[in-house]
Amino acid sequence: MSNRATSGMTRTDERIAILQQQLAQAQKLTALGELASTVTHEFNNVLMTIINYAKMGLRHKEEATRDKAFDKILAAGERAATITNSVLGMARNRSDSFEPTDVAAIIKETLILVEREMRKYRVSVETQIQQVPPANAIGNQIQQVLLNLLINARQATPEGGRILIGLSHDATNDTVDLMVRDTGSGIPADKLQRIFDPFFSTKQGPDGSGKGGTGLGLSTCRNIIEHHRGRIRVESSVGVGTCFTIKLPVYRKPAPIITATGIPQAYPAAAFSHP
After folding, report:
1. HEC string of the chain?
2. pLDDT greater than 90 at residue 30
3. Which of 10, 41, 171, 254 is at a distance of 20 to 30 A from 274, taking alpha carbons?
């Protein structure tokens, strides 16, 4: 191969690498936008509840009415505290390192963020959470995937529909399995094959809540799960619904490496020396 051809391939590889970095950044910004939109919407609902019942308490002199207003304000304040704790939990999971991860806790925190939106669109959420070992994962990235799948499921599910979240341990493959199933419109077979392609979307644009339509969400999900050496698959039937299943490796504590001296590498040789 000539030097010119080799140089051309090198430049092409460099351009591909740059485009991949730009795509990854776009995917990250999209995920952050989804999260910010969800949290902002939740806090707006809480504040409106507090303001409206505070006005009601000021207008009415009856003790029973004021007590009702105070109870609603207290409930809204507790809701705000719950959302704050959930967001703080996500902030604590900002590590980019693989570590033992409690997927059940991630499900709980994420459901807090989308609870009000699910109620608004009259979509019920059920969970089937089994006791599972920790996954070897980056917690905030798995939460990003789950949030995206739940938003997609809500958008695809009509009022009165249902979303099921399952968590189980596949002992044969030694994986933690996370499932999100909806009773939505389903995805046609010709579109299902492209569902994880960047910029491909089954939506025409953002819905009434301002979410969806970029085509980056599921592409991001696949990239994250593959980075975890896991697998993500989708099954769908038009008019029945869609099911996403994620398989994450179980966390296993690395065995200590035995050196030529017979001392585990995790412990410095000096710690075993004698004066």
Report:
1. CCHHHHHHHHHHHHHHHHHHHHHHHHHHHHHHHHHHHHHHHHHHHHHHHHHHHHHHHHHCCCHHHHHHHHHHHHHHHHHHHHHHHHHHHHHHCCCCCCEEECHHHHHHHHHHHHHHHHHHCCCEEEEEECCCCCEEECHHHHHHHHHHHHHHHHHHCCCCCEEEEEEEEECCCCEEEEEEEECCCCCCHHHHCCCCCCCCCCCCCCCCCCCCCCCCHHHHHHHHHHHCCCEEEEEEECCCEEEEEEEEEECCCCCCCECCCCCECCCCHHHHCCC
2. no
3. 254
Tally of structural domains, the chain: 1
The 10s digit of each residue's pLDDT in 143-160 is: 889 988 998 899 999 999
CATH number of the domain encompassing residue 249: 3.30.565.10
pLDDT in tens, 224-250: 999 999 999 999 999 999 999 999 999
- Report the percentage of the chain scoring pLDDT > 90: 33
